[in-house]
Design brief:
Distance between the termini: 22 Å
Number of helices: 1
Structural class: mainly beta
Length: 138
């Protein structure tokens, strides 16, 4: 198969039912799941594996938005609560449009920064369970 590449340009990102993609400058859906553990016994077929629980995180870097219902305001107002998310990757390319969706635990981001710089924030949201991966139909 020949090489294929694509620049990250457009996403659709909803958190708690509100679209925030225009504030996002960097995103990363991390699979932090451990490998399963292997156990042995003394019988001839005495090997089995206990699978680990899925552990995913959604890392976001975004331009701060403290307006009513802006992303910064939303995260602080909902700190510690669960919210649904949907992330559409390459929504403008029908043959490559894929979606991850699920539930995250909201965490209020840190606030502050250097004087006279554009205010940005970073947050890591823990995904509850394993996000659902869907290939959208062209």
């Amino acid at each position: 198969m020949p090489p294929h590449n694509r620049k990250l340009k457009t996403i659709n990102f909803a958190l708690g039912g509100t679209q925030f993609e225009c504030q996002i400058s960097n995103w990363n859906l991390e699979n932090n799941s451990e490998d399963g553990e292997r156990f042995y016994t003394f019988c001839p077929d005495g090997e089995f594996r206990e699978e680990a629980e899925p552990e995913y995180a959604l890392n976001l870097t975004f331009f701060s938005d403290w307006r009513n219902n802006g992303i910064s305001d939303f995260l602080v107002d909902n700190d510690g609560l669960n919210a649904t998310f949907t992330l559409d990757h390459h929504p403008d390319i029908p043959a490559e449009h894929v979606t991850w969706s699920g539930t995250v635990r909201i965490k209020a981001p840190n606030v502050g920064g250097d004087a006279r710089t554009t205010e940005t924030q970073e947050v890591t949201l823990q995904v509850i369970g394993k996000p659902v991966y869907t290939r959208e139909q062209p």
